[in-house]
Amino acid sequence: MEIINRTQRMRSVCRKVRRDQEKTIGLVPTMGALHEGHLSLVREARRMCDTVVVSIFVNPKQFAPAEDFQTYPRDLTKDTMLLADYNVDYIFAPAVEEIYPKGFSTHVEVEGISDQLEGAARPGHFRGVATVLTILFNIIRPDFAYFGQKDAQQTLVVRKLVRDLAFDTEVVVLPTVREESGLAFSSRNAYLSEDDRRAAAVLYRALAHAESAYGEGERNGRKLAELVRADIEREPAARVEYVSVNDADTLAPLERLDDRPVLVSLAVRFGKTRLIDNILLNRTRTGKTGALTSV
Ligand code: AMP
């Protein structure tokens, strides 16, 4: 395993892998502070691809000024040890100036799908995500890139980005990995106090409640959202930012649910920590590994 900090080195390594060895490259883009969710993506990349690159880059452009860019957990040593166990070929861990050199002024905006939910709550977030992914895709030119359903809207933004800008990369989306309590793994869980961490298990319980109500025939989108909100509001430590029921592909808000796949998503604060989670209803899974679909 080699740790690469320089764009030029990363680019030439990937060029060599592709040209001389005709090997496939899988990219797992992350912001580090790795956990089981990230590792599920790495495992699948390892299974599918000859060469696996994990990028670790806390991308300043996807944080708003008042957000947690400065305090975001960083532990490259621990991350490196974990990834060595997973037989990763390259870690790409560039400094900010390496990705955004002085004078950088080009940004990528995926219009429409970036506007609602997380995009509305965090203006500029998806512009930052689309911009850094465009740069990473151009440096590495991966055959496959791996993303978690945990960030549901991000997966839609990435698919649209890849389609619209004709990247030669297949997007693979994998299911959300959860702790035993149901709490989705997240680097931001490190911010939670022990009490809040316990309390945060309510998010998955509430989403699972929506899933069972849907299973029993509830087709009113507003009622499903209310049910989730009410469950969470019974937990005193939780402050709901939004609970939303949307078409899982277009993010159009849904009143009446029909046969289309549905995304129930939420953002909730515990103290200063903002957590997101979601559940997909009515989505038929494909593939042995539960990969949700690919472009
Ligand atoms: P991040 O480091 O938070 O930018 O996440 C990097 C990738 O890991 C993204 O594609 C996330 O969706 C994915 N990811 C984060 N948490 C989870 C999780 N609990 N289960 C599956 N994938 C996850």
Keywords, separated by commas or semicolons:
single chain; Rossmann fold; Pantoate--beta-alanine Ligase, Chain: A,domain 2; 2 domains; three-stranded antiparallel beta sheet; 19% strand; disordered C terminus; binds adenosine monophosphate
Task: Walk me through what this model shows.
The chain contains ten helices and nine strands. The chain is α/β, with parallel strands linked by helices and 295 residues long. The strands form two sheets. The chain has a six-stranded parallel beta sheet, sandwiched between helices. Helix 9 packs antiparallel against helix 10. It starts with a strand and ends in a 14-residue tail after the last strand.
CATH structural architecture of the largest domain: 3-Layer(aba) Sandwich
Supply the CATH class of the largest domain.
Answer: Alpha Beta
Large-scale geometry: globular
CATH fold node name of the largest domain: Rossmann fold
Helix content: 25-40%
Rg, alpha carbons: 19 Å
Q: What share of the residues does DSSP label as strand, in percent? A: 15-25%
Main sheet: strands, sense, barrel:
6 strands, parallel
CATH superfamily label of the largest domain? HUPs
